[in-house]
Amino acid sequence: MVVTASNRAAAGVYPDRGGPLIAEGLAALGFAVDGPRVVPDGDPVEAALREAVRTGYDVVLTTGGTGISPTDRTPEATRRVVDYEVPGIPEAIRAAGRAKVATAALSRGLAGVAGRTLIVNLPGSTGGVRDGLAVLADLLPHAVDQLRGGDHAQAPASGHTSGHAADASGHAAPVDRAAAHTTGSEGGPPGAPPNEDVPGKDVPPSPSGSPR
């Protein structure tokens, strides 16, 4: 499932750009995708995450609300929902972004597990979303397998695991449901809308297919 956290996108001031990118990326990975669901920053993000966990999605990706402005509260909302954090994921996403844009270090996004649902916060900029999807492409299939009780064998570099069914195009399709939530849009140039591209930050879309 995909969730976009943005006060202005939720109010219709400008269109959500990050959420659709995440949905496309998840679909490319073979996940069945719901969303993007656009909600205001803060408590609505927590409510959307809790609903996604109750529904039983395998993965929920959020975009936006991970910066240091007063309204960027997606990390706090996520921390209240997860049972435990997986710090290596956001660390890898920030490292990928810093290689292109220094301000990627300001992202406070986190990742964690609630029940059997993996929740990952991505930045609000389209560049940050692409960077995050590039990192997640090699991690999500293996993470879903583990949360479903699979073994801990290292996943292939391609991100596909032997336990995934292949779709018509031959891509590995995770068996669960991935939920990507997009939240907020920090990380853009001064004065730009939250979902604006950040120069140098391009990441391949993250797939969504049979796993959710």
- Name the poorly predicted regions: 155-177, 180-209
**What is the string of helix and strand elements?**
EHHEHEHEHEEHHEE
Counting DSSP H or I runs of 4 or more residues, the number of helices is 7
Distance between the termini: 7 Å
Kindly state the number of beta strands: 8
* Widest β-sheet, arrangement of strands: 2-1-3-6-5-4
Largest sheet: 6 strands, mixed
Strand content: 5-15%
Question: What is the radius of gyration?
Answer: 15 Å
State the share of residues found in helices, binned by percent.
25-40%
Q: Report the structural category.
A: alpha/beta
Identify the overall geometry.
Answer: globular
Mean pLDDT over the full residue set: 80
List keywords for this structure.
alpha/beta, globular, two-stranded antiparallel ribbon, 212 residues, six-stranded mixed β-sheet, 31% helix, 7 helices
Describe this structure in words.
By secondary structure, the protein is α/β, with parallel strands linked by helices. It has 7 helices and 8 strands, in the order βααβαβαβαββααββ. It has a 6-stranded mixed beta sheet, sandwiched between helices. Helix 3 (43-55) packs parallel to helix 4 (74-81). It is globular and about 45 Å long. The relative contact order is 0.28.
